[in-house]
Design a protein that fits this description.
It is built from four helices and no strands. It is mostly helical. It has one domain.
């Protein structure tokens, strides 16, 4: 009985360890993509042309970095995804205006 409980505890521990690594890699990948998209928006003059999307992308990226510093990878990925979406929406509007 004790061996079964120990084995179950070990399986749960290993599963939680491996799934936390997945969040880390996905979050860092999404954060890099969001940073690139935001820098593209900044280079296109998004601060003046589409201020709402620019500020949204900037703040979501900032929150994503704060969550990553606290090792909350799931929320870091979610906010990075929002930042990237706002940047891409801003880039689309900038292209329409030019």
């Amino acid at each position: 009985m004790v061996k079964r409980i120990a084995a179950l505890a070990m399986v749960i521990f290993l599963l939680s360890f491996f799934t936390s690594g997945c969040y880390y890699s996905k979050a860092t990948k999404e954060m890099k993509a969001a940073e690139k998209s935001f820098s593209d928006l900044k280079a296109q003059g998004g601060e003046k042309l589409v201020p709402y999307e620019y500020c949204s992308a900037e703040k979501f990226l900032e929150i994503s970095k704060m969550e990553a510093n606290e090792s909350d990878w799931k929320h870091a990925r979610d906010f990075a995804d929002r930042s990237k979406a706002a940047s891409e929406a801003g880039l689309a509007q900038v292209q329409k205006k030019k």
